[in-house]
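Minutes, project check-in
Item: structure for the 307-residue chain
Input as provided by the requester:
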Amino acid sequence: TQAHVCVPLLTEQGRLLGFCTLSKELTDEGYDQDDFDLLRAIARHVTMLLVQFELITERSSSAKWEAVHRFSAFYLHDLKNLASSLSMVAQNAAQFGGNLEFQATAMQTVKNTSQRIIDLMGELSRQAKDPNLNEGAITEAVDVNELVKDTLGAVKDSGCQPNFHPGHEVPILQLKREPIKQVLLNLILNARQATDEKGTIDISTAYDGEQVIVELIDTGSGMTMAQLEKLFQPFQSSKRNGLGVGLFQCKRIVEDHHGMIHIESQEGRGTTVIITFPLQSTDNASGVVSNVAKSGVSYDPRRNECP
């Protein structure tokens, strides 16, 4: 069919998107000015729809790249921590290489680290295909005490060893197991990096009737008020070579579980991290989960010791 009338689809900037055409009139009357005006109006409307579709497509693409950039930075942070673990083993091997107990611990660390790297590569591959994969991750029944023990087993090597004080009758929670384990791992590694072998790291769990509490206290270097103010901001780090995504990531994961992460610190005295997970309560009328997610930091230079 040949076009008898052709109207260009032009944007306000003069960019040509296509053409709107009509074939020969079915009758012998031909097209008049009213027909041309109607066709121009239709062309303008079609042009607007095409421009809107382009914008939606561009925004969707930008959102996907933003998600890719975000989780890539998080995985880079995890790989950096794993590399630090291997580096610590290599450094201590020069002094304790002949010690059979050290050899066994070092091999276990290498094994755990290698497996974690393999797991990370698998997660990275899956998320590269679907950047929003973790948004829909399914929760499972998790024993918080067992999860802490499992996490501590992954970092059992030289350095300041955390002391774990499991609470009694801590209820099972519905959590995304691996993300929460990642939070605990990041916090433990942060505490170890800030605490020398003469210091202490204590982890405890408890249940107060409304929420499950995980508390991590170290006697390390602590943080200044200026560092605390930027603590949960992305790409802000209190470490010289830090990537600044660890605590930002922890905050997002905890809030995703309707929880709260709170940090108290004093420079030279240590840091306390408190994570709380409320038992989900459902409004009988609406069926809506009514938990509130919060996070915060506090600093009290007048205190004689880190809480």
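Outcome recorded: The first helix runs from residue 33 to 96.
No further action items on this chain.
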